[in-house]
Design a protein that fits this description.
Elements: H1 3-18, H2 25-36, E1 41-42, H3 43-50, H4 54-66, E2 70-73, E3 82-85, H5 89-115, H6 123-151, H7 154-165
Antiparallel strand pairs: 1-3, 2-3
Helix pairs in contact: 1-2, 2-4, 3-4, 5-6
């Protein structure tokens, strides 16, 4: 496989996996392209490489900046904006965890808090509240674990992970 084929396969695969991580295919492909680019790319470069519209490129670049996965880079003498991806994979993973928690886990915890106040006036209601409390307990532990992971440094995480799999 030559570089062009490898690059294309990576961009397509990262884009396909993006939906599993809570982002759309194009956003993931832009992220992948910027991660493997040896230098910052302009929106025009991204549009040309991925064959996408300016609006699509700009909307997804803004989202990637909001997620902390991409930043703008200024080049002297250039009017265009250039973009560069975070290439430290530990920071990438942490930023994705932070965004997924904010988008998915935290709203669910809020709903579970509300559901915990259901009146227990029947066996069915008692079972409902019991199950909600169990889900809330598990989700709270997951939230706490993810907070610890986000605050940890990569050496601690890798060391702990290696101990777990032995």
């Amino acid at each position: 496989m030559n570089l062009s084929e490898g690059k294309d396969k990576f961009l397509q695969s990262w884009g396909a996996y993006g939906s599993s991580w809570g982002v759309n295919r194009t956003m993931a492909q832009i992220h992948a392209l910027l991660m493997i680019a040896p230098q910052a790319l302009s929106a025009d470069d991204i549009m040309e490489e991925l064959k996408i519209s300016r609006g699509n490129a700009n909307m997804n670049l803004r989202a990637l900046i909001d997620w902390g996965l991409v930043s703008k880079e200024l080049k002297a003498g250039e009017r265009k904006e250039f973009f560069v991806a975070e290439k430290d994979m530990w920071k990438v993973v942490k930023n994705i965890i932070i965004q997924r928690k904010k988008k998915e886990l935290e709203p669910m915890l809020k709903v579970l808090d509300e559901l915990s106040s259901v009146e227990v006036d029947s066996p069915e209601a008692a079972e409902f509240v019991r199950m909600i409390k169990e889900i809330k307990l598990f989700s709270g532990k997951a939230d706490s674990t993810l907070d610890t992971l986000v605050k940890a440094d990569s050496n601690w995480f890798i060391g702990t992970f290696m101990k777990m799999i032995r």
